[in-house]
Specification:
Radius of gyration: 24 Å
Largest sheet: 12 strands, mixed
Organism: Hibiscus sabdariffa (roselle)
Helix content: 10-25%
EC number: 2.7.4.8
Family: Belongs to the guanylate kinase family.
Number of domains: 2
Strand content: 25-35%
Enzyme class: transferase
Bound molecules: adenosine-5'-triphosphate, the ligand Nc1nc2c(ncn2[C@@H]2O[C@H](COP(=O)(O)O)[C@@H](O)[C@H]2O)c(=O)[nH]1
Oligomer: single chain
InterPro entries: Gal_Oxase/kelch_b-propeller, GK/Ca_channel_bsu, Guanylate_kin-like_dom, Guanylate_kinase, Guanylate_kinase_CS, Kelch-typ_b-propeller, P-loop_NTPase
Structural class: alpha/beta
């Protein structure tokens, strides 16, 4: 028989739990109690998670996926539904205070099968609707990197590049951490096994992959993420919960593709031939697999770039008018807030009980329109202040 839970079960009411010991909170989902913030070995660097299985009376330490929230002065926990728990971090910055611990989403169930362990996955909540990430695929040498560089140069505050990992050797002009994270195969294989990658594929004889962290780092910077990945990777992202726009870039002809690859001068003859052989299948899949929302032909570079901008909804004025997302104005939670759930709203009382009836002490999070989730951010949180003298939500904060 396992040890008795360290927290007080009496405190669990309708799935809502109060802090009961140190910074621990808990939520019941089915036969399991998820204890958040307990004394994990790693809990000095992030908020730990332990599971108490009531059928076996045993504690289980799950594999924890996703970027984890850092230890904090305290937090509240509220069960959103049977698949995810919302964590509200006290005293943190407005854009870092809402997190979701997924305990039984499709992604978590898939990862349980792959890893053969209990799995939970963190996903940070983001207010409003961020622009969808952009996945750009196409055969080697078609001009993906060139087009992406043009976008990043023209719209530096709007786009951020997802820096992939690869086992291939760096080219002369490539910097570690900028163009790629260059890594050993054994390290990358272990990280893949540990669930750190959104997608990965063997491409032209090397391993390439997008870490969850790479995509989240861009989201955290408030920019729209661009991924330059092959068709296999695009297929995996399409199957994940990351909602993105998928664009396939086609060469005008195989002859011109070969000319571009040779003119770039970065591959050996053998590598060029391998990339050209793979290109035929990639183009076939790009056009017919149904993965891609848009196909662009990169014949004339300037025209292709204009077409790319058009389908991303960018016109000439966007470069100057763009305001980085998200708007930093938002909720600032005091240490002594309390949380409750009514229908699809989470109510946070930021005042003392005596002040409860005054205006602006209550914040409502509307969780009806949540989108995305692990392995990525949970978007679509709407945050309002509530004037309790009026009938409802009166000021949208984001
Ligand atoms: N429309 C174009 N016309 C002529 N040359 C082009 C055009 N677009 C790109 N190029 C050139 O083709 C070469 C390959 O482009 P780029 O490196 O951007 O390809 P890529 O798709 O990113 O390749 P990889 O997948 O191997 O990284 C570069 O030298 C680039 O300057
Ligand atoms: N599935 C993934 N494919 C990736 C990733 N990063 C890059 N790539 C693709 O690899 C080829 C070759 O790239 P190169 O830099 O060696 O020329 C190209 O098609 C890229 O799109 C990734 O993270 N995942």
């Amino acid at each position: 028989m396992g040890e008795a839970p360290a927290f007080c079960f009496d405190n669990l009411q309708n799935g809502f739990s109060f802090k009961s010991k140190g910074f621990e909170t808990s939520a019941d989902v089915g036969d399991k109690t998820f204890v958040i913030g307990g004394a994990n070995s790693d809990s000095t660097s992030y908020i730990g998670v332990q599971i108490y299985d009531k059928t076996t009376c045993k504690w289980v330490i799950p594999t924890v996926l996703g970027t984890k929230p850092k230890p904090c002065k305290g937090h509240s926990t509220i069960l959103l539904n049977e698949d995810r728990i919302m964590i509200i971090i006290k005293g943190s910055t407005p854009d870092d205070c809402i997190w979701f611990l997924e305990v039984d989403t499709k992604y978590v169930r898939e990862q349980k099968k792959v890893l053969g362990t209990e799995v939970v996955a963190w996903s940070k909540g983001m207010r409003g609707d961020a622009e969808k990430p952009v996945v750009i695929s196409g055969p080697s040498g078609v001009g993906k990197g060139t087009l992406i560089n043009m976008l990043m140069k023209e719209f530096p505050s709007m786009f951020g590049f997802s820096v992939s990992h690869t086992t291939r050797a760096p080219r002369g002009n490539e910097n570690n951490g900028v163009h790629y994270h260059f890594t050993d195969r054994s390290v990358m294989e272990k990280d893949i096994k540990d669930g750190k990658f959104l997608e990965f594929a063997s491409v032209h004889g090397n391993l390439y992959g997008t870490s969850i962290e790479a995509v989240e780092a861009v989201a955290d910077s408030g920019k729209r993420c661009i991924l330059d990945i092959d068709v296999q990777g695009a297929r995996s992202v399409r199957a994940s919960s990351l909602e993105a726009i998928f664009i396939f870039i086609c060469p005008p002809s195989m002859r011109q593709l070969e000319e571009r690859l040779r003119a770039r001068g970065t591959e050996t003859e053998e590598q060029i031939l391998k990339r050209l052989r793979n290109a035929e299948a990639e183009i076939e899949q790009g056009k017919s697999s149904g993965i891609f929302d848009h196909i662009l032909y990169n014949d004339n570079l300037v025209e292709c770039y204009e077409n790319l901008k058009e389908l991303l909804g960018l016109d000439g004025s966007a470069a100057t008018n763009h305001k980085p997302y998200p708007d930093p104005k938002g909720i600032d939670l005091p240490l002594n807030h309390t949380v409750s759930k009514i229908d699809n709203k989470i109510l946070i009382n930021c005042g003392t009980p005596e002040l409860e009836t005054t205006s602006k002490n209550l914040i409502a999070l509307d969780v009806l329109g949540l989108k995305g989730g692990a392995p990525g951010r949970t978007r679509g949180l709407n945050v309002y202040s509530i004037d309790s003298f009026s009938d409802g939500l009166n000021e949208k904060l984001s």
